[in-house]
Specification:
- The longest helix is centred in the N-terminal third of the chain and has 34 residues.
- The relative contact order is 0.17.
- Helix content is 71%, strand content 0%.
- It contains eleven helices and no strands.
- The chain is elongated and about 80 Å long.
- This is ABC transporter permease.
- Pfam families: BPD_transp_1 (PF00528), OppC_N (PF12911).
Length: 265
């Protein structure tokens, strides 16, 4: 926790907290409903009433941007931990048996062989676009990442002297894994969690650009940006808003990851 009180960790925490706060208090910041079509407000430029203007369906861009923040944070803070838990569970179990380990590594090879966007397109074709599709893609992407990360850490810690000492005094394999190995193997997982949060934001934006992300009329950072890019010549600020928020969120997670990695020594 000390890494979050200074330097890159503090800056990253402030950036993520500011974006999250904006998303949470969004309804208090703007009077417009993100789904409401405002009469006579088609593709308006920035004004006091609409700081980022309106889109092609007469909806306030700022209201949709603030609502989109909540969608992206929901995906990041649910799909990434689920992927991490599944990946770590599979990775840890694979270290118990050599045959199981080989089978799991080949499965991870298959998942990692597909580029993220190709995997996203394939899954979206099966289950359809939507928020849950984005979340499932994020989980599928993160499972092999966390699985291999924890497996490597477990194999390294398992050779430590304190683990050997526990085995010598008669501790069972499951007890050693649960009590001694896993608690000392989680440091890289914490770093990867922050990195994967930024990857989740990227995946959501890329899927929205391809038309297989969050389904209309629901907003997300990627969906708001995609709509704004179509009318960039009329209102550049409508695209700069979601770009700035996305950049701040990704940079914040990246700085948190760097701070956590530096704290590991």
């Amino acid at each position: 926790m000390s890494a979050l009180r200074r330097g890159r960790g503090l800056v990253g925490l402030v950036l993520v907290a500011l974006v999250a706060l904006a998303g949470l208090v969004g309804p208090l910041l703007v009077p417009w409903d993100p789904y409401r079509q405002i009469e006579g407000a088609n593709l308006l430029g920035p004004s006091f009433a609409h700081p980022l203007g309106t889109d092609d369906l007469n909806r306030d861009v700022l209201a949709r941007l603030l609502a989109g923040i909540r969608v992206d944070l929901l995906i990041s803070f649910t799909a990434v931990p689920v992927g991490a838990l599944l990946g770590c569970a599979v990775g840890a179990l694979a270290t118990v048996d050599n045959t199981l380990d080989v089978a799991v590594q080949r499965l991870f090879d298959v998942l990692l062989a597909f580029p993220q966007l190709i995997l996203a397109v394939g899954l979206a074709a099966v289950i359809g676009p939507g928020t849950w599709s984005v979340a499932i893609v994020v989980v599928a992407v993160e499972v092999p990442v966390f699985g291999r990360l924890l497996r490597t850490a477990v194999l390294r810690v398992r050779e430590a002297q304190f683990v050997t000492a526990a085995e010598v005094v008669g501790a069972g394999r499951a007890h050693v894994l649960r009590t001694h190995v896993l608690p000392n193997s989680l440091a890289p997982v914490v770093v990867q969690l922050a990195l994967s949060m930024s990857v989740a934001v990227f995946i959501e934006g890329a899927m929205s650009v391809l038309g297989i992300g969050v389904s209309p009329p629901h907003p997300s950072l990627g969906a708001v940006l995609t709509t704004s890019l179509r009318y960039l010549d009329l209102n550049p600020l409508s695209a700069l808003g979601p770009l700035a928020v996305t950049a701040a969120l990704v940079l914040g997670f990246q700085l948190l990851a760097q701070a956590a990695n530096a704290a590991r020594g």
